[in-house]
Amino acid sequence: MKRARDRRDSTDPHLDDLIATLARALVCTRQSCAQAHLQRLQARLYRGQALCVQHWQDGHWQPLQVPLHELVTPAGIVASTLEVQIDCDVEESDADAHGQPPALALLPTHHQAPHRLTIVLHGGNPLRGELLLDGQLLRPLRIDPFTGREA
Fold first, then answer.
1. Nearest-5° angle of CA 132, CA 134, CA 136?
2. Do the domain assignments include residue 133?
């Protein structure tokens, strides 16, 4: 009996490689972007500035000076989303020699094309995202952050 092919078996390996490369790039840049942003914030906030607040203590409000650098937590700063848009033409391809049915071929162009392929990745483990054509979902993405391949 012939086994039904998994949906991922019929996708374009070049597109899958692009998605895997983008996923690895998001994982690699998450920490470095967060660190650079934190350094910029700390350079601004470590100038001795403080936020004046009031807190309730012993039945009345007490003034409190909170140094601004204490309000920034490094763990709260991450690059969490990557979105790439590719202008493309869409053509129908013929059935191939391996018995695959006709399919749509996305042809990236260097000019304003009538269609747009969008790859959106959101951080996490696994990475999640969407593959969209003209805003319509082609397939959801779940990507292993270590291999860059769909989970």
1. 50
2. yes
Residue 2 lies in a domain: no
Q: What is the number of structural domains in the chain?
A: 1
- Calpha distance 77→31 (Å, rounded): 9
- Burial (CB count within 10 angstroms: exposed 0-12, middle 13-18, buried 19+), residue 121: buried
Q: What is the residue range of 36's domain? A: 12-151
pTM metric for this prediction: 0.60
Cα 90 to Cα 100: distance, rounded to the nearest angstrom = 18
Structure tokens at 146: 């270590």
Cis before 102 (ω within 30): no
Residues 74-110 pLDDT 10s: 666 566 788 999 899 888 877 777 777 888 788 888 7
